[in-house]
Amino acid sequence: MTETQDERFQHRDLDWLNFNERVLQEAADKSNPVLERLKFLAIFSSNLDEYYRVRVSQLRQIKKIKKSLRKKLALKPNKKVKQIIKEVKEQQIQFGQIFKDEILPELAEHHIHLIQHQDFSKDQFVQAKLIYQDKIKEHLEPQLVDFEKKNQLFLENNTIYFFITFENCEEAGVVNIPVEQVGRFIELKNEGKEHFISFIDDIIRAEIHEVFPKRKVAGIYQVKMSRDAELYIDDQFNGVLAEKIYESLEQRTDGQPTRLLYDAEMPKELQKKLRKHLGLGKIDMMPGGKYHNFSDFFSFPDPTDNSDLKYEDLTPIPHKNFEATSDYFKLIKDKDQLLHFPYMSFSYVENLIEQAAEDNDVVSIKISLYRVADESALTSSLLKALEKGKEVTVFIEAKARFDEENNITWGRKFEEKGANVIYSYPKIKVHSKIFLIDRIEAGESVKYAYIGTGNFNAETSKLYCDHALFTAHKKITKELDRVFKVLEGELIIPRAKNLLVSPFETRREFTQMILHEIDEAEAGREAKITAKMNSLEDEEIIDLLYRANKSGVKIRLLVRGFTCLIAGVKDLSEHIYITSILDRFLEHGRIYIFHNGGEERIFMGSADWMNRNLNRRIEVLAPIFDEDIKQELKEILQLQLNDNVKARVQDYTGKNEYVAHDEKKPIRSQYEIYKYLQKKHS
């Protein structure tokens, strides 16, 4: 493959589908326990729903731009959507094969049977009828549809429905499937050691004559609508942005349709009638299987309680330094500390906030919250700090997609208790994961900082691989204090010389560090860039990496999600090697290492190499000063770079091929990191 102008960048939305294919690979991997494989199908489905609600809807919005301007900007949304649909259809065929031909038979081998209504025994039919009458019927909202009346039917986002045809009748029936009220799965009575589970869908199918008692059912087809998830709020209006978002949340269910998923068995004539009635285009129609919303499989029950069907538990590793003391402030003041989730417990973070709330010498706590947990020890400690008269400043990101309502609810709770609550700014998000504690010691202010790669959420910390730095280093705490002053409106620019703070210094500093590696390579000296992130999109950074490649800089990247950089192309990126790790935990950390003539510069924090992280979000990346922590991060990152079990090569082929073993010892990095930390903290 050789370079052309069109081949310099992979389209992010197409490469994202490669990421979701890696999720599907995990569902297909027979070395994973069967219930975990089922969860990967749920993740695939959930990812795809959000993708249609956000990314595909954005492509649809481009169609509203005048055709002449679209042509000038080389925007081709229809072409991209058609490519997306083609790829998604192929993935969904694979999805169905994995579910029907592999997972269902394996569940049956373990005495778990997911049965359809036509397979109910007489006793199960009786039980289904009772469940329908007692639990389901009251939540159904059946309606009749006259195809002559356009837009009579409204399908809510991500809600599954049955679309029903009747014999000798032009009207059709529609009824919701009340998953939210009842749950998706119904456990039926056991027969010996055999366990039977049914979709709520099949309970309703079995009783459909009760739903429409005066009509004879001819066909039943499941449908689901995905709607635009973006809130089109004019930031120029007066008023608090948080309030505007809160008031606009209902748009999430009323947004523009981006996909109608329908049972592929639905007759073509019926598809056409439904499409026209809903005002959809052919491009909006996506055939699927008999069942939709596989994200509900997150809640699939295990009536056998068989540990072989799930991943083995990994008990959180006690951090030897935090465990050896009850005075976290002295510990952090003496030496920087580093945590790794989910290998270690988030409780250390909660404990520090609790100590700060109780400590009479602590005068203030400042924290940025991106995705707030419903109820947590951390939020309780912040409320306790307010009760004890401490100054608490909470920055709430009101635009954290799908978490707006919960975030704003918590913001109001903090306000009611006297906190200084600051909400999002127009046109910028605060994505940093930071807090700062101010404590009076011997009459002087001493500040304690936290800079992490993941959200302040105890539940997601059990699923996401993240890193967390605790430090009292004055160069960091002084600059982090300035970051909070920017958030509070006291400063316009934080003037950071050590932290990388977006949208201020980060792009400039990354550019300078890459250029320095280029200079080193061109001078014949060793030059290397090693980086781990979620996604790589920014074209300026990618062009710099291409330039570095041509100069001989060795570039090794770990990118979990999509990458717009195309690796392995002769005369463009042949010295750039990218892998992606997808395993039981979601890789979420961001680490950047620049060789810097042998005096390595290492940064860790919240920012990816994406345009939004560099230009439109408040992000914080911390330099690692402590030599022990530098070494620890490097050793952990090296284990990930060496992964040859769950790592896939990301290059111009787009094949998602696993890294070859080459007769080497299998290295599954997430398990190797667990063993490494066990040894280090024993």
Description:
Residues 426-460 form the PLD phosphodiesterase domain. It comes from Mesonia mobilis. This is Polyphosphate kinase. Helices cover 38% and strands 21% of the residues. The chain has 22 helices and 26 strands. Strands 14, 18, 19, 20, 21, 23, 24, 25 and 26 form a nine-stranded mixed β-sheet that branches. Helix 15 (377-387) links the parallel strand 11 and strand 12. The longest helix is centred in the N-terminal third of the chain and has 33 residues, at 77-109. Mean pLDDT is 89; it is low at 1-5 and 231-242.
What is the general shape? globular
Count of DSSP E strands?
26
User: Kindly, what is the distance between the CA atoms of the first and last residues, rounded to a whole number of angstroms?
Assistant: 50 Å
Q: What's the overall average pLDDT, rounded?
A: 89
Counting helices, strands and paired strands, the structural category is alpha/beta
Percent in strands: 15-25%
Helix content percent band: 25-40%
Spans of at least 5 consecutive residues whose pLDDT stays below 50 are 1-5, 231-242
Based on CA atoms alone, the radius of gyration comes out at: 27 Å
**Helix tally?**
22
Major beta sheet, specifics? 9 strands, mixed
GO molecular function: kinase activity
Cofactor: Mg(2+)
Organism: Mesonia mobilis
Protein name: Polyphosphate kinase
